[in-house]
Amino acid sequence: MQQITRVNHLGIRVFSLASSRAFYEKLGFKFIVGPVGPEPVAIMEHASGVNINFILNAAAPTETNVLMDEAVKKAGYTHVALEVNDMDAVIAQLKTLAIDITEGPVVFPSGTSVFIRDPDCNVIEFHQPKK
Description:
Layout: E1 10-13, H1 17-26, E2 30-36, E3 41-45, E4 51-55, E5 79-83, H2 87-96, E6 103-108, E7 111-117, E8 123-129
Parallel strand pairs: 1-4, 5-8
Antiparallel strand pairs: 2-3, 3-4, 6-7, 7-8
């Protein structure tokens, strides 16, 4: 479909707006509005233009992610990959922020990645393309 111009936003179901907001603020996201709407939703945005809609009706988080950590793999979105321009700086900032790297650095043919988890065990990849 040629009319698609970009990703507009990511929808992430979360348990606690306060916990999610605090975590994503550490990554540089700014709170825009929320909760709003019938489901309800809160919105955060990064200066890069990445927009996240938190759907605020998840059950309490568990220690695992049903799409990533269970032996039987279910269909669904497994992670978001955020492109970065300095992986060493990202790794240093994550350490300073006391955010655990759950995997990586991993070198792929396309570049290098590290993975973290948010308070609800959602996976976030930071990917620096190969030069």
